[in-house]
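Key result, reporting period 2: structure in, sequence out.
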């Protein structure tokens, strides 16, 4: 078997060698550099839309997205220059000022890391959602109304017992569309509709999800970075103020439903399975599951 050719480049002054075809993000990780990402996932093609992974490439006029730019011999990459930090900071501020990121731990960590201040662009995005939340959940604690609503100010869509769509948390990273499409499920039940501030994830003709082509595999839920798509069990626990990751344990096992052997990671709280995922590094699933593997755990006592 032929070994891949290797590419030598420099990342933050350190020499790095990666296989030909690797991205700058892979080179950064090989150099031990923690590069932020939101729209990138190991089991999906680079969507190249969030722009928080940008780096400075010597000789390039603009910052380049490390998740999709291929490494080339002799490249000189800088990941933490003032220009890079400012770009990442502003992108994060714009995201956090327009959508509710309260259940997006990665974004919250990045906001702190880059000293981002979304309030520069107005009140918190979730402040304008109080009325919508109260309409969907009368028991939800009311927050003061902000001067402006979030980009997508609407109550969560509670259309079934499997998962919830809360588009006021959606950053349009495109990952759910990819997972539903030819990157994983090949169902094509959802797509990005509208343009500009009207852009949103939607079904064909905006029909309710149960009336769409959706097969409820939940692979869109598995890749969502913000909680815009969440299992109904998690949503209900959060709404009740009972979701507590500090009390949760994880157990790796194999799905019992068929002979494929899909790897499962069970998240358990108070003796109850509250969420099921699959490890991206699994050679069987690559992080993806079917409806049974992801949601069919109700029989466990």
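The corresponding designed sequence is given below.
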């Amino acid at each position: 078997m032929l070994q891949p050719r290797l590419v030598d480049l420099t990342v933050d002054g350190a020499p790095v060698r990666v296989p030909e075809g690797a991205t700058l993000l892979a080179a950064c990780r090989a150099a031990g550099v923690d590069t932020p990402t939101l729209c990138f996932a190991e089991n999906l093609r680079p969507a190249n839309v969030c722009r928080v992974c940008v780096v400075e490439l010597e000789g390039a006029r603009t910052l380049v997205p490390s998740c999709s730019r291929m490494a080339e011999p002799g490249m000189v990459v800088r990941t933490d220059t003032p220009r890079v930090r400012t770009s990442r900071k502003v992108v994060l501020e714009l995201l956090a000022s327009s959508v509710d990121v309260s259940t997006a731990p990665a974004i919250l960590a990045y906001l702190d890391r880059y000293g981002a201040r979304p309030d520069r662009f107005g009140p918190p995005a979730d402040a304008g959602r109080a009325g919508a939340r109260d309409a969907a959940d009368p028991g939800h604690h009311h927050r003061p109304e902000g001067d402006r609503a979030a980009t997508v100010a609407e109550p969560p869509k509670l259309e079934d017992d499997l998962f919830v769509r809360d588009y006021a948390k959606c950053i349009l990273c495109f990952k759910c569309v990819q997972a539903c499409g030819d990157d994983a499920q090949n169902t094509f039940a959802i797509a990005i509709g509208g343009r500009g501030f009207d852009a949103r994830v939607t079904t064909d003709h905006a029909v309710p999800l149960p009336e769409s082509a959706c097969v409820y595999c939940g692979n869109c839920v598995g890749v969502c970075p913000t909680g815009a798509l969440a299992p109904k069990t998690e949503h209900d626990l959060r709404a009740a103020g009972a979701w507590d990751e500090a009390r949760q344990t994880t157990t790796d096992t194999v799905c019992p439903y068929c002979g494929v052997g899909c790897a499962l990671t069970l998240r358990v709280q108070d003796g109850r399975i509250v969420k099921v995922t699959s490890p991206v590094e699994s050679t069987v699933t690559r992080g993806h599951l079917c409806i049974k593997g992801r949601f069919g755990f109700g029989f466990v006592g």
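The chain is about 20% helix and 20% strand. The longest helix spans residues 82-98. This case is discussed further under Risks and Mitigation.
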